[in-house]
Design goal:
This protein is an alpha/beta fold. It has 11 helices and 8 strands. The longest helix has 18 residues. The radius of gyration is 18 Å and the shape is globular.
């Protein structure tokens, strides 16, 4: 049985972060989920966010199924399914997901702890006037989840995609994202599972053998199994329910990511030990 206390002691555990490196971003509460080494690492390659042959090429290909999943789970069948929704893309990087959400009508805050990432996101967004004409809107901010919460921000949808494995104190980060979600809203998360198969594919193959991403991009010890993440969310209080969790697999022949068709079908053949990438939706009850 996976318990919240076990999660605190193992995967969702606190780490040490440089105070001087994060002083400009952390809130007065003195708690930060920023991993200074991760910020430095991704800041150094921020110019590659929109390069299809760069470090984020695979993430660019992952964007369509992520957007399709959010659209499906919110259940709006319309040309602008995110119209009138206030959405937070936390850890937005260069804006891959943020731009897609805006084009579908969302009022999006793209937040990232890396100033270089935000600069690149703003630079790319200027190339497309549609992003600024509406009906959606785009607001990029060099900030953190903690500072947004301290400012009493609230969102209809909070999206934390491929970020929880890059933060310190992931449980606190998760709680902060939950608090940023208004009653009746949804929280979407995607990450990688801490399985031997995930290590073989994302670290050994993708980094060491094929060089599809920069060496050192992933820290397998910070991956979180889907069951652990579901248990952590539902342990907050009675307000939260994990509504759907599905695996995302890579099709090397078609060179595309494929989203599982069924809820709880996460690992290959539904086997937990064969989990790699997955995405989930959790919903906060109305008050």
């Amino acid at each position: 049985m996976f318990t919240l206390s076990r999660l605190r002691a193992t995967v969702l555990r606190p780490s040490v972060v440089s105070r001087s490196a994060t002083r400009c971003l952390s809130s007065g509460a003195g708690v930060t989920t920023i991993d200074a080494a991760e910020i430095k690492k991704f800041s150094a390659i921020s110019e590659e966010w929109w390069d299809p042959h760069g470090a984020f090429g695979m993430l660019q290909l992952l964007n369509p199924p992520r957007v399709a999943y959010v659209r499906e789970r919110l259940g709006v069948d319309a040309p602008l399914p995110f119209k009138n929704l206030r959405m937070l893309d936390i850890g937005c990087g260069g804006g891959l997901l943020s731009e897609s959400l805006v084009r579908l009508g969302g009022h999006v805050v793209g937040a990232d702890a890396s100033q270089n990432n935000i600069k690149m996101a703003k630079l790319h967004a200027r190339k497309d006037p549609q992003l600024w004409r509406g009906p959606g809107s785009l607001d990029y901010r060099h900030t953190t989840a903690e500072d947004l919460l301290a400012a009493q921000e609230q969102f209809d949808v909070v999206l934390a995609m491929e970020i929880i494995e890059h933060v310190n104190q992931p449980l606190h980060f998760l709680e902060t994202c939950a608090s940023l979600t208004r009653p009746g809203g949804s929280m979407f998360l995607s990450t990688m599972s801490r399985t031997p198969l995930a290590y073989a594919l994302t670290v050994v193959l993708a980094e060491k053998v094929l060089g599809m991403v920069h060496d050192g991009t992933h820290d397998w010890s910070k991956y979180i199994k889907s069951r652990e993440l579901c248990d952590a969310i539902e342990a907050f209080d009675d307000a939260w329910t994990v509504k759907d969790v599905r695996g995302i697999s890579w099709d090397p022949i078609g060179r595309r990511w494929v989203l599982a068709e069924r809820n709880h079908h996460v690992g290959v053949a539904g086997i937990e030990a064969l989990e790699v990438n997955y995405i989930m939706q959790a919903v906060k009850k109305e008050t």
